[in-house]
Model the fold of this input.
Amino acid sequence: MDRFDFILKTELENRGYTADIVQLRDEMINRSGLFIVIGEGIEFRHLMMQEFFAGRGISSTDFLNTIVTDPWVEAGVSLLFRKQSGRFCGTLLGNYRTQRTNR
Done:
């Protein structure tokens, strides 16, 4: 829980917000249905949420090129293509197809 609290606090501060971290964590884990506690870890209850955020984390073609051959990222890449448009998406898609063909 300490790591979760640290990430939550840091992300809020980076966006200019403050909150009662313990109360917010309780709401997120015990009431929202987004997360599940498994042993000492906290995971997204549904893999699609994790894939969505993974796709949003792909910020450039350089980063995509470093991860494109990992089968785990395929769902995230798919969600990224749905989110993006225009030249950026075309470049990413071209690079992705090239990398997949060369596997």
Observations:
- The chain has two domains: 2-45, 49-101.
- The beta strands are 35-38, 41-44.
